[in-house]
Amino acid sequence: MRKKSILALAFVFFLCLGLPVASADAPIHVGENPPADWQDRSLLRLIVFKLTPCDGMLLQCGGESMMIDSGTRKFADVLEKALRDLGYGDSEDGHVHMPILFNTHPHDDHLQGFLRMVQNGMTADMFITSFRPTYRNEMHQQALKEFSARGIQIHHLEQNEEMTLGGAHLRFFWWSEGNDPNELSCCLRIEFGSASLLLTGDAVGMAQHGLLEQVPHEWLKADILKSPHHSYTVMVKDFLNAVAPQYVFSSNTLYYAQPTKSQAEKHNAQFGTSSGGRIVMETDGNEWYIWQYKGTV
Fold this sequence. Notes:
By secondary structure, the protein is α/β, with parallel strands linked by helices. The protein has helices spanning 6-10, 76-88, 108-119, 138-149, 205-214, 217-220, 237-243, 254-266, and strands at residues 14-15, 28-30, 44-48, 56-61, 64-70, 97-103, 123-129, 153-156, 161-165, 168-173, 187-192, 195-199, 224-226, 247-250, 270-273, 277-283, 288-294. The protein has one domain (44-294): Metallo-beta-lactamase, Chain A. It is globular and about 50 Å long.
């Protein structure tokens, strides 16, 4: 289902000058049944696909959608099928149409899936990246060339840029002094009512330290945190303290994510990994409900 009008109606980009940020205090319910009228409410939903150990997520709010990273090319077919099953198939040719593609950084386990799906016929309105057009990275340059040739608008983010998606408020930021793509990973803080989550790409330890120095700590605070860098390394203690999450999730297997799981539990946060199946997180802006669908991409 195409949503070309989303560009005219939903995208208002502007630089942040200090808007208030709600506190992260929305209760989290894991594996519980929501109220009977839950689906009648205005909801924000994050779907974390089972692309172990890669990242690939779908953000939905108010009838608007954004894909966040896409795994490697080997996941392109199963990811496209999952998106088609969720209603994103184009009735004209059967290919998926996704209004927005957002890439946290140009490594193959985050960007290659987008590239392959577009080459296979997927369409999109806009590709969002914090990496400059001149950034010297082969996959980044290939994606920009391919997407532009297929009529996908390219938007290069400014530091601390904000946008809206449905009723959700999104803020993009990264450690400006990073050197490699991981250190330069673009973080995304999503706020909906009093609910919030923080997606960190592959922001490794140096980036986490840098963010603590560069970013107001209220921008980091969130109910839900995506474990940085697939949980291959433990999180910086002060960074975790600043986020103060109630729930932490990883895209990796528990074998690699066990140290992160232990960190989360020491902070009284619940932990989940999408390696066992798709994770779905929903909030009405007041509380979260989280479910996992075992074995489902």
